[in-house]
Amino acid sequence: MLSGTSYDAVDAAVAELAFEGTDLRLRPLGLHTEPYPAALRGELAGCLPPAATTLERVCRLDTGLGQFFGEVAARADAALAGGRADLVVSHGQTVYHWVAGTRARGTLQLGAAAWIAEATGLPVVSDLRTRDIARGGQGAPLAALLDALLILDEEPGAPARGALNLGGIANITVRGADGGVLAYDLGPANALIDAAVTEASGGAERMDTGGARAARGTVDTALLDALLDEPYYRLPPPKSTGKELFHADYLRTRLRAVGRHPAADDLVATLTELTARLVAAACREHALTELVVSGGGVRNPVLMDRLRALAAPAALVPPERFGLPAQAKEAYLFALLGFLTVHGLAGSVPSATGAGGPAVLGSLTPGAAPLRLPAPRTAPPRRLRIVT
Q1: Radius of gyration (Cα) for the chain, nearest Å?
Q2: pLDDT tens per residue, range 168-215
Q3: Domain ranges of the chain
Q4: 291-332 confidence digits (pLDDT tens)
Q5: In terms of CATH architecture, what is 144-322?
Q6: Whole-number Cα distances in Å, 138 to 101, 178, 240, 287, 291
């Protein structure tokens, strides 16, 4: 389960996982999504950067998120697993990702796991990013492992393929020149678009639904050039970012600095073009011929059309070709990571996050029954197979 940087809903993907020799088999059973209640989303928005908050509000939010995640988990188990689930894996809701220069120093995901365990009676794996940071990594993107096992082909003559997730932040996974896995946050995908739409509509709209505003608008090339001059984009990977940097105040500051005040739809069109340019630059840098695209951004036809045009000759490929729905891929990622955790296997990829070594991720909260873990595995899987 997770709620991403757009913090609009909780996604719960249900899967059956099992080892088959050196492979890991995943059978998707479906995705259950529930939007945040308006009051809870409002509390969350009031705690996120650049807003100031208090420990009291953080405590209340941690409880409220944990209770809602627990309710969603219980309903997903009943609807998609027939009440037979063995384990819940909760990424929770990121409220702060602490990056100083090129180092990640800490990360905070709320949604107390004890409430999930109480609601479901199941053990819960949570806090999946901190261990990688403790080993010197960025704690992100964690998608590198799933992408490496499922999407990035090592066979001679295979396409130069990358995997892209378009959430609030855009992140990419590729193979580096040495064949190792490289993954990093490119910059904003929906984060700044959502901020612009929310402000323009007075909060009545939270996203550019169907890319309607971008389609009506015209790209402000002078503003686009100024936005592309963000120092983060020039940092070498591994690197990670979030709404600690790319938020509404960041956008207002940039607009004031360049003296540009475009109409709302023109601003959204410019921010959409910004994301497409960042992705296209990465495709050129890594000489990609295929890009597997997932996340909420795939529902924006204007963004996808610009990606097709600018990323060429790299072809955009849906993750459904590999057996996972575009909207559910990240939720299945966390199911995979939690499954590895309870088997004593690392879920991080040091070449992607910059950590000093691989780490078994997360903390484990027992459920209603005595905690019984499976026998530890001695070797990580070499491939992920999706069985439908």
Answers
A1: 20
A2: 999 999 999 888 999 999 999 999 999 999 999 999 999 999 999 999
A3: 9-139+326-386, 144-322
A4: 999 999 999 999 999 999 999 999 999 999 999 999 999 999
A5: 2-Layer Sandwich (3.30)
A6: 11, 21, 6, 25, 23
